[in-house]
Amino acid sequence: MGIAVQTVTLSLFRFDRALSRIWVLGQMGAARFAISRVSGLRFWKLCGSGTGEGFTPRPNWGVWAILAVWETREKADKGLRMLPFSRWSARADEACTLFLETYSSRGQWAGMRPFTPSGTQPDGPIAAMTRATIKPLRAARFWSRVPDISARVGRDPNVIFKIGIGELPLLHQVTFSVWPDAATMDAFARCGPHAAAIRAVREEGWFDEELYARFRILGHEGTWQGRAPLAANFRQEAA
Q1: Could you state, in order of their start, the residue ranges of all structural domains in the chain?
Q2: What is the pLDDT of residues 60-119, one digit of tens each?
Q3: What class does CATH assign to 7-238?
Q4: What are the pLDDT digits (tens) for 49-61?
Q5: Could you give the residue ranges of the DSSP H alpha helices within the chain?
Q6: Distance of CA 46 to CAs 123, 198, 205, Å?
């Protein structure tokens, strides 16, 4: 028998109607009971999102996310058909899920190490995730840097997909982005506002907790902004 490989999913849901937005806001508490009973789920977070380029202190009340870590891909496929995932998908005006496999991870999330690396860095597209708990007294300094970084990410033609999500506005933040390859993402990270912000993190101690992870992209389901996310990218990879 082969070794079971952990699967990570990021499910995004868009709610256009006012009543649906009120409903999903309530789900941030109510859905915890259902998701805690899903078999094969090792770690999960219910998250809101940001406006603009995604990673901003202004919430986007129409877009919500569920990040999940599963024991295997088979359990992920089964679990995503159960509550609360199925209920959110049924109520959403649009939904999609990205399937990921961790190849690099360091740091902690809520005192845990949720992502177990398996395999090596792929030659093609990768996804990158940064998660941080911001110290309250450093929040103003942190958010003064973010607009420059978000604007650069938004203008970068190499960014295939991007979104900013979080568990708690202003203090618990996650960036998620997809790049054509690791070298392209590394080049972005080494220069400009992003590099300056990383130096400030180290020198000024902005974060109580931080996590950096990279993933191989396994596939996707659903649509986002009216199209299949990453579809063209997958065709290029297979060619």
Answers
A1: 7-238
A2: 999 999 999 999 999 999 999 999 999 999 999 999 999 999 999 999 999 999 999 997
A3: alpha beta
A4: 987 655 566 789 9
A5: 18-35, 73-79, 85-91, 139-155, 182-189, 192-204, 231-238
A6: 31, 26, 27
Q: Rounded to the nearest 10 degrees, what angle do helices 192-204 and 182-189 cross at? A: 70
Partnered with residue 131 across adjacent β-strands are 174, 211
Angle 106-123-165 from CA coordinates, rounded to 5°: 45
Task: Tell me the β-bridge partners of 224.
Answer: 227
11 alpha carbon, distance to own chain's centre: 9
Q: Which of 113, 144, 150, 122 minimizes the C-alpha distance to 206?
A: 144
**CA-CA distance, 223 to 82, in Å (whole number)?**
19
The pTM score is 0.86
